[in-house]
Amino acid sequence: MRYFQIDGVHYRKDELIAKAEAVLKDDTVAEWEQLVWQFILNWFSDEEAVEVQTSGSTGAPKKMKIQKHYFRNSARMTLDFLGLKPGDSVLLCLSAGYIAGKMMIVRALEGGLNLILSEPSSNPMKAINQSVDFAAMVPMQVEKVLNESGEFALLKVRKLIIGGAAISPELEQQLLPLKNQVFATYGMTETVSHVALRSVSGTKCSAAFQPLAGVEISKDERGCLMINAPRLAAEMVITNDVVEINSDETFQILGRIDNVINSGGVKVFPEAVERKISHLIGDRFIITAQQNVLLGQQVTLRIETDNSEKYDWVELQNKIKEVVHPFECPKSIEFVKVLNETATGKIIRR
Q1: Candidates 3.30.450.180, 2.60.40.1270, 3.40.50.300, 3.40.50.12780; correct CATH number of 4-214?
Q2: Given 95, 186, 223, 272, which is the most exposed site by the fewest CB atoms within 10 A?
Q3: Could you count the other beta carbons within 10 Å of the beta carbon of residue 233?
Q4: pLDDT at site 340
Q5: Sequence-separated (6 or more) residues with CB below 8 Å from residue 134
Q6: What pLDDT score was predicted for residue 56?
Q7: Which residues contact 22 (CB under 8 A, 6 or more apart)?
């Protein structure tokens, strides 16, 4: 008989369903935990599809239904890629209200892993006193762990995947010397979480994403990534990510085509500029655009800070000119107290 393991307790399927039903009737149980058990109850229901919500990073958040067999296939592909086996522990520190959290639950249920429940927080390792084999976090969580709890806390996770938003160059530098396996992920709700990973720690770190087994990639006429993954989606997924595809079928992301700034007829990828100048700015920032009569759009630097006086714009602009092409150099600067974000922590550029 098959058993499922949550927080070290083994459950038969009927026992797990009964536990979920009991939790959902208990008004004292926190909302984050109710989301977990509600999804488990939905997972074992007779419904063939699961309702999920997109993050809203490229438009208004929307709900969509995804067949459960796509969830199972995605889980198996990740388990195989990472070499996870029954009995391994998996930390759930993301909200079960979104695809990333739901997929961690499915990976645990499908792979026979011990699912460790933890309240989603900015520093998920603060409350974890044990080592775990597998976890998924967003970049903000990883930064908090490193800054507040130190490298040792992150090393408690044997295999860590990071997704939901791009990893900053500064964070990548912090991850590089780590001895555990850390991966950046590429994917979206429509592909049932990630379809590719790249190592960002140790000697195997890479700037290129490696597609999971069974995932085929190509480019459309815009230079944007197209994903053919029959095990994850019924139709080809066409993205807005401009990419370079290497001869070994790995790929690198240049930037989103809907973020491209057309300045005087020259296309500027803000993500590429951000990578080049990240070491010059101590606060969170983005490259965005303002309307310009002559150029159409002009490159603009927007910095999140409560103290704009610490920045000498002329001096900073001169330093930026040393590391970017002339057409990439910001023509203006803006200061904001908070950069707009989606519910999952992705910065909204415009």
Answers
A1: 3.40.50.12780
A2: 223
A3: 19
A4: 86
A5: 82, 84, 88, 89, 90, 91, 107, 113, 157, 158, 159, 160, 161
A6: 53
A7: none
